[in-house]
């Protein structure tokens, strides 16, 4: 299991936060998602079969591309 923090500049309001959390939690292997509109960061805890690639692809698909992996 691992936890990663992503910079997601397109987070602009509470709806973005809700959408990201809802969509990512549906990805198999994702254990926890915390999106923050102030810092425009998303912290995801996941295990296989989820992967950074799958998370990045989903974020792209829903309109919130990851700009940078912070940690
Ligand atoms: Cu929004």
UniProtKB/TrEMBL annotation:
Gene3D superfamilies xref list: 3.30.70.100
Taxonomic lineage: Bacteria, Bacillati, Chloroflexota, Ardenticatenia, Ardenticatenales
Domain HMA stretches: 2-67
An annotated GO BP: copper ion transport
Pfam families reported in the protein's UniProt record: HMA
GO MF terms, alphabetically ordered: copper ion binding
Highest rank taxon of the organism: Bacteria
Name this protein carries in UniProt: Heavy metal transporter
């Amino acid at each position: 299991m691992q936890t990663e923090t992503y910079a997601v500049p397109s987070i602009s309001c509470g709806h973005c936060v809700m959408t990201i959390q809802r969509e990512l939690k549906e990805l198999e292997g994702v254990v926890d998602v915390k999106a923050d509109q102030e810092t425009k960061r998303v912290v995801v805890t996941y295990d296989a079969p989820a992967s950074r690639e799958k998370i990045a692809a989903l974020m792209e698909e829903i309109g919130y591309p990851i700009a940078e992996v912070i940690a």
